[in-house]
Model the fold of this input.
Amino acid sequence: MFAIVLFATGALVGILSGFFGIGGGMLLVPILMMLHFSIKAAIAISVVQMFFSSILGSYLNYKKGNLKLNEGIFVGIGGALGAFFGVHLTNSLSPKALALLLLGLVVFAFFKVLFSKSSSSNEEKQVVIWILFLIGVFVGTISIMLGVGGAILLTPIMVGFLHYSTKKAATASLFFVVFSSITGVIYKLSQGVFINLDLDVQMVLSVAIGALFGVVLGIKLKEIVHARSHKIALLIMYALIIAMLVKKIFL
Done:
């Protein structure tokens, strides 16, 4: 029965991953914590889920012609390098510090998207490659520490500073998650994290497989909604995550 709950949770997160371009960790980690997983176990499960859903989601976006590989690759390489640093920093912070950092980043994302102006594609800033790389390093470091895919930071940066639409930023952000999650999974496997946390393989796969089903539906939904509705939905999601984290940390 618990595996079914985890599958449904993964499916929900997968839908949101495809729709918003997120790795899903910023929602999955709080939900798993509410299901009585420790934050470090929740982060480990989240990284595996991101690995599966981001690869499938980016492939589907590429087939639809919505994903441009040129800029995304440099951000992604920076993200992979940042993720390498991030996994080393995770164990240096307490669970309470990790949770507070996650809360602060979601609050930042909410207000950055809220006050951003909608822009057409021809208004996007042309950014040099090394800036994209550095953005990737920063986002990758923070995201892998918290078990989130990076969209929690990358989407607000692309929308607020580079003038991407939320839908285009979502597509680019999900591709970024591929790089950071691969690095995170490899490191955690090499360190025996999943064994040390005594995680049941069935529980981890239940979340991951559910996410695969969900991401397909999420991408289809993203294609049919209006850009303004997509932005409003993104803000609502951030607000719900903030409420969940506040409840868990302070109440």
Summary: Residues 2-250 form one domain. The radius of gyration is 16 Å.
